[in-house]
């Protein structure tokens, strides 16, 4: 009887994808958390890896990080990253994955900071003002990002939008090289794991240890982190993936005017950085193309107001069903007008963050109204509402 595979190729490729995405958004101020020492209050290390304390239990956190900056009037933010690999022509990520993300968020975000009375026992004159904090004194706000190489079903999009789960769609052709590298490396790693089992069946490491070695090696190479579990022997297998990630360099994280997270890939990374460093925000225009699978591929052209910086282009994929959900939320007695107004509001401004040790940059991409009107017109013409 054939031996059962330690781990399926699809799951393994999802692990590779989430590690790479985490490293590519690091300059949005994303710092990876890998040990309980990073936060003894919330984090714990168990046999299946790093765990986050929730109200009702602990939850596995394969890729967890926190933003090095905190939003005004809110708690510091931590972000789970989970990736779902689907081969070409395979089904989109659906509602079950979105529900899983929401369930984790609901539990970990209900860990309460408790208080206790200052004096021991009951004291005369003690009121509810005479308390002190018995926990850390503040809470983190946990968020979730789901990555997919095949897009998301309409139901998953609606559910994620309602519960503020970020959907990162990497089905765009701009990610062809990255997806191809993950596909190749994932298959090679799967063969390596099976070979390890066959040649050393008695001493073959369990699945969890093998995955930790792969993650540790990637984190050492992509983040420069000191990782005890890193294995130099994996480098020849991982090399195509590392080169694909280095070729991209970084992905920019943008937030729309209505709070929707957008993953932006620049055709010229250094030009985009120069635009962000400029005294004035750049001009932008928007272009739209509808894929056969229903995803809306968008391109932003970024140019300086005085022409001193060469233009660059930013690419992102926005599932068309997401726009339909936004339309439905806006539709009332003024169905069509409300839908178009919300699209204008949704894309009127995209704020891009870049936070490094040297300099923190925030850039506002204001979309050219003429280009936006044309994109909306084309969208309405392609997709009956």
- List low-pLDDT spans: 1-5, 330-340
* Largest sheet: number of strands, sense, barrel closure: 7 strands, mixed, barrel
Helical content, roughly?
25-40%
Spatial strand order of the main sheet: 11-12-15-14-13-17-16
Percent range for β-strand residues: 25-35%
Count of alpha and pi helical runs: 10
Order of helices and strands: HEEEEEEHEEEHEHHHEEHEEEHHEEH
Number of DSSP-assigned strands: 17
Structural class: alpha+beta
Indicate the CATH architecture of the largest domain: 3-Layer(aba) Sandwich
The rough form would be described as globular
Q: How big is the Rg?
A: 23 Å
Distance between the termini: 54 Å
Number of domains: 2
CATH topology of the largest domain: Trna Endonuclease, Chain: A, domain 1
The CATH class of the largest domain is Alpha Beta
Mean pLDDT: 83
In short:
The chain is of the alpha+beta class. It is built from ten helices and 17 strands.
Describe this structure in words.
This protein is of the alpha+beta class and 385 residues long. The longest helix is centred in the middle third of the chain and has 24 residues, at 176-199. It has ten helices and 17 strands. It is globular and about 65 Å long. Helix 3 links the parallel strand 9 (141-148) and strand 10. A seven-stranded mixed beta barrel has the order 11-12-15-14-13-17-16, surrounded by four helices. A five-stranded mixed beta sheet has the order 1-5-6-9-10. A three-stranded antiparallel beta sheet has the order 2-3-4, with no helix packed on it. The protein folds into two domains: 1-120 and 131-249, Trna Endonuclease, Chain: A, domain 1 (3-Layer(aba) Sandwich); 252-382. It is 37% helix and 25% strand. 33% of the residues are buried.
């Amino acid at each position: 009887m054939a031996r059962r595979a330690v781990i399926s190729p699809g799951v393994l490729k999802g692990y590779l994808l989430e590690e790479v995405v985490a490293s590519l958004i690091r300059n949005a101020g994303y710092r990876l958390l890998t040990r309980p020492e990073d936060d003894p209050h919330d984090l714990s290390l168990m046999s299946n890896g790093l765990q986050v304390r929730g109200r009702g239990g602990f939850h596995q956190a394969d890729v967890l990080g926190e933003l090095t900056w905190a939003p005004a009037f809110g708690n510091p933010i931590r972000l789970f990253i989970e990736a779902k690999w689907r081969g070409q022509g395979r089904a989109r990520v659906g509602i079950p994955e979105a529900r899983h993300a929401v369930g984790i968020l609901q539990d970990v975000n209900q860990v309460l900071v408790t208080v206790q009375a200052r004096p021991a026992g009951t004291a005369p004159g003690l009121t509810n003002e005479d308390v002190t904090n018995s926990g850390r004194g503040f809470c983190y706000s946990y968020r979730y990002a789901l990555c997919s190489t095949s897009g998301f079903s309409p139901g998953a999009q609606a559910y994620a939008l309602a519960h503020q789960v970020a959907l990162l769609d990497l089905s765009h052709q701009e990610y062809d090289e990255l997806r191809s590298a993950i596909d190749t490396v994932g298959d090679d790693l799967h063969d390596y794991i099976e070979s390890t089992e066959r040649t050393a069946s008695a001493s073959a490491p369990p699945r969890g240890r093998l995955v930790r070695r792969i993650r540790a090696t990637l984190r050492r190479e992509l983040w420069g982190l000191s990782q005890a579990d890193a294995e130099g022997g994996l480098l020849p297998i991982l090399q195509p993936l590392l080169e694909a990630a280095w070729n991209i360099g970084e992905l920019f994280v943008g937030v729309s005017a209505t709070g929707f997270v957008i993953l932006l890939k620049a055709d010229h990374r250094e030009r985009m950085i120069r635009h962000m460093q400029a005294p004035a925000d750049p001009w932008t225009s928007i272009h739209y193309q509808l894929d056969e699978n229903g995803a809306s591929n968008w391109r932003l052209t970024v140019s300086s107001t005085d022409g001193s910086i060469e233009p660059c282009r930013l690419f992102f994929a926005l599932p068309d069903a997401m726009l339909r959900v936004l339309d439905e939320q806006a539709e009332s007695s003024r169905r069509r007008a409300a839908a178009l107004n919300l699209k204008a509001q949704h894309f009127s401004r995209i704020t891009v963050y870049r936070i490094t040790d040297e300099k923190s940059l925030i850039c506002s991409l204001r979309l050219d109204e003429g280009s936006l009107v044309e994109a909306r017109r084309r969208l309405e013409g392609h997709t009956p509402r």
